[in-house]
Design brief:
By secondary structure, this protein is an alpha+beta fold. The chain is built from 3 helices and 5 strands; from the N terminus they run H-E-E-H-H-E-E-E.
Length: about 110
Amino acid sequence: MTLDDILQKVQGMKIVERRSMTDDYCELVFLSKDLEIWYNAISDSLGEPRKPAGKQPTDADQELTVKTGGIWVGQTLFEKKFDNSTIIAKFWPWQDEGNITLKIAVLYH
């Protein structure tokens, strides 16, 4: 599975800002009103969240996400392991409640 495979599921959705897009890392901002569509696309690809929003992150969650800015209580973390890599995705809601940053990364073992 690649980042493109995941993002194909939300093709046509409004993206407020594309911050980074490489083969191994994607960071973009979308509207909060579209969260369910984005959440379902990530969940379809990576399964249920490892850490849902509102749950305190574990030390293992922090270690997994340290290279992509860590993880906080109000954020959601997805993880799926593959043979040579792990894909993580994080939803970071903004304080303004209008936008959400999505970070997806391929971590190689």
